[in-house]
Design the sequence.
């Protein structure tokens, strides 16, 4: 912001800067607004389809591992943390690459225009700088084309949005596509894919346990059939005797210590078999290494029947899974708010990794413990079987057909009961394989939207206007910071040079007619010239300057126009004024005022016998004009000659004021030759054109030739100030009025 050094900036300064650079602000604003409008007109319309589904509370329905092993019905109650974990897990599954690829295949999205490869210069440069791996094989499937697969999944993920509605069991799925029907189809297929995935997970877990139990039941059935055949054979060959009587079940009562031990060993063997089967079931589930399946064993009859070490590990695994899901939900939430390098996110990812390691370690430990339990149960079963065989052989030695019959019958009944119970459970598991039960209920299926979701025209236009204002303001500040041109009074004061007055801007076409004081005497320009005249007359105490030299730093700063009007203003002050055109290189006075004759100052200086070429002005009889004449070959020598000094001394006696229009001081040395004859020198600077360096340089070139250094004789006139400029109304204390709009911006003072 170009202001006086040491002066504090204020809001007024900022507003003045914005007013001065309003073209930058307006052009930037209009450019961004039309860019936003162009985007709204030509951007591809995108449609967003939305589906909402409910994740119902999970409950035991007799078809999971708990009911398969005959456990009591679970309450199915869940706390808020478990609900959040389930919701976040389902949301993450929806955004997985597996489901994305499934939907892409089902709907053939690779042929959709959204998924067509587009040239991206940034990706192209990155691919050139970093290795990208071998290219995809020609005509290969999606699974065998990693680059194409990654491209499709990335586009799918970018257009997909999954939101969990806080405080509910609802999940909202949104997908954006240029085709409204495709957008709706993608959402519906994705939700259905989640339902299928949930069912398939449960189905696979149950099917795995069922297959193992089926193999066990084959051996048990064969054993039961053999026992039944043996009972029939013994019944046919009965040589039965006993103590007489029957038990409440109608079976004969037989007493023998050996038979009592045999009954006990039979019961122990049955219990050992059941225990081995249960331990084997736990061991088979643990061998899968699935934390989800292993955690389901906790709280079941199988899990509770395991050893304390296994039970403790199952409980710990379930707790670690809960912590893992909680951290995953927290990381997903924090990632949406903070960047990947946020310390809290790094700490949470480290905690998640530690929990994962702990979970895997516990799974490994429970696998070892389950294996040990299974081996112990098997060894126990072998021991029980040996005891049973020993007791049975002792009973056989009694050669008591009745006792043998009772034993075999009991064994057959127990074997048959065990077989029937396990068979019933296996059939229930088979029913699960045929059902497609799911705890996901679609509340609102996706439908093709009627209106596009983007572009958002009001938002785009608002952003265009907002960015336009902001960037326009920044551009105004930047332009003002790098602009070295004089803009107002404060910059001249900062250079510590005297300022005599400000002259407003006029239209360029009005400069070709006549003096502004004649064509528009009541204009702001005329008033400014009269003020300049007053300042000039009182600039020297006691005696106004008789010879006034007008110059500028560079061409095109309006000095000729100002000189003509200043001379006319002095003449209107009832003074006899001579206007001398001292610019012998580029004279404009004769052509502008359409003066007669061909001679002038150059002729008078080169030929002392030449007649005087002074012309009385038609604008005012007190104003006399001396044109420059034909351009001479050496104008500087003529202006610095004794003849020029003699003429000026002669004119001093004949006229009240002599006003000399001189060439620009930075271009030629003519001004420095004329300045010693002048009592006052006006240095004209053009606003928004003259640089501060040029003005300061011009002033320093004039300063050594001042006749009386104690009395300033060089003054600055700031020309072509806009009537709307804060520099103008701030200097004079008012805005330019509408009646002066005749001389508003649209041209500028121009030296011919």
Sequence:
């Amino acid at each position: 912001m170009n202001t006086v050094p040491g002066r504090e900036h204020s809001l007024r300064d900022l507003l003045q800067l914005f007013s001065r650079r309003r073209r930058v602000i307006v052009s930037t604003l209009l450019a961004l607004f039309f860019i936003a409008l162009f985007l709204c007109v030509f951007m591809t319309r995108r449609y967003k389809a939305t589906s909402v589904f409910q994740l119902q509370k999970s409950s035991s329905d007799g078809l999971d591992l708990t009911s398969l092993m005959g456990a009591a019905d679970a309450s199915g109650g869940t706390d808020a943390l478990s609900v959040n974990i389930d919701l976040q897990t389902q949301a993450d599954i929806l955004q997985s690459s597996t489901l994305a690829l499934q939907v892409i295949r089902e709907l053939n999205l690779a042929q959709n225009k959204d998924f067509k490869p587009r040239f991206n210069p940034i990706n192209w440069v990155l691919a050139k700088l970093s290795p990208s791996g071998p290219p995809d094989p020609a005509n290969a499937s999606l699974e065998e084309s990693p680059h194409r697969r990654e491209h499709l999944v990335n586009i799918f993920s970018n257009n997909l949005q999954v939101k969990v509605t806080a405080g509910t069991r609802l999940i909202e799925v949104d997908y954006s596509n240029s085709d409204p029907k495709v957008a709706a189809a993608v959402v519906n297929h994705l939700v259905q894919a989640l339902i299928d995935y949930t069912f398939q997970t449960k189905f696979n877990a149950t099917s795995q346990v069922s297959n193992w139990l089926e193999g066990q039941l084959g051996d048990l059935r064969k054993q039961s059939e053999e026992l039944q055949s043996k009972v029939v054979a013994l019944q046919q060959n009965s040589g039965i005797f006993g103590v007489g009587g029957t038990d409440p079940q109608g079976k004969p009562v037989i007493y023998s210590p050996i038979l009592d031990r045999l009954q006990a060993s039979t019961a122990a063997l049955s219990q050992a078999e059941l225990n081995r089967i249960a331990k084997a079931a736990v061991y088979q589930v643990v061998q899968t290494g699935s934390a989800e399946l292993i955690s389901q064993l906790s709280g079941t009859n199988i899990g509770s029947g395991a050893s304390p070490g296994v039970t403790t590990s199952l409980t710990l695994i379930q707790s670690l899974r809960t912590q893992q899901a909680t951290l995953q939900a927290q990381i997903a939430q924090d990632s949406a708010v903070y960047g990947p390098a946020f310390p809290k996110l790094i700490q949470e990812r480290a905690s998640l990794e530690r929990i994962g390691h702990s979970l895997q370690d516990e799974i490994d430990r429970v696998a070892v413990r389950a294996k040990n339990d299974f081996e112990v149960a098997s060894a126990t079963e072998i021991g029980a079987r040996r005891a049973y065989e020993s007791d049975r052989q002792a009973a056989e030695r009694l050669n008591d057909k009745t006792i043998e019959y009772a034993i075999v019958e009991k064994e057959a009944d127990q074997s048959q009961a065990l077989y029937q119970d396990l068979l019933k459970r296996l059939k229930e598991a088979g029913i699960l394989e045929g059902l497609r039960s799911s705890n996901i209920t679609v509340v609102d299926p996706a439908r093709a939207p009627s209106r596009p979701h983007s572009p958002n025209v009001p938002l785009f236009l608002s952003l265009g206007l907002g960015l336009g204002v902001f960037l326009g303001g920044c551009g105004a500040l930047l332009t003002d910071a790098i602009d070295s041109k004089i803009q107002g009074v404060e910059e001249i004061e900062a250079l510590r040079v005297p300022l005599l007055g400000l002259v407003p801007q006029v239209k360029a076409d009005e400069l070709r007619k006549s003096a502004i004081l004649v064509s528009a005497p009541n204009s702001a320009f005329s008033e400014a010239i009269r003020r300049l005249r007053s300042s000039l007359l009182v600039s020297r105490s006691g005696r106004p300057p008789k010879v006034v030299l007008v110059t500028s730093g560079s061409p095109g700063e309006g000095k000729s126009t100002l000189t003509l009007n200043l001379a006319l203003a002095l003449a209107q002050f009832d003074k006899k004024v001579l206007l001398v055109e001292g610019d012998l290189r580029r004279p404009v006075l004769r052509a502008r005022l359409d003066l007669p004759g061909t001679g002038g100052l150059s002729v008078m200086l080169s030929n002392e016998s030449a007649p005087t070429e002074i012309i009385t002005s038609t604008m005012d009889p007190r104003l006399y004009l001396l044109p420059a004449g034909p351009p001479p070959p050496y104008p500087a020598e003529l202006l610095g000659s004794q003849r020029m000094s003699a003429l000026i001394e002669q004119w001093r006696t004949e006229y009240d004021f002599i006003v000399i229009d001189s060439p620009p001081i930075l271009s030629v040395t003519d001004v420095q030759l004329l300045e010693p004859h002048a009592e006052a020198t006006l240095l004209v600077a053009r606003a928004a054109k003259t640089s501060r360096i040029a003005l300061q340089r011009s002033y320093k070139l004039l300063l050594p030739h001042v006749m009386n250094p104690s009395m300033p004789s060089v003054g600055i006139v700031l020309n072509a100030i806009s009537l709307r400029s804060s520099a103008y109304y701030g200097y004079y204390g008012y805005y330019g009025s509408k009646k002066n709009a005749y001389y508003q911006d649209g041209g500028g003072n121009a030296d011919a």
Remarks:
- The CA atoms of residues 686 and 719 lie 5 Å apart.
- The longest helix spans residues 180-236.
- The two ends are 33 Å apart (CA to CA).
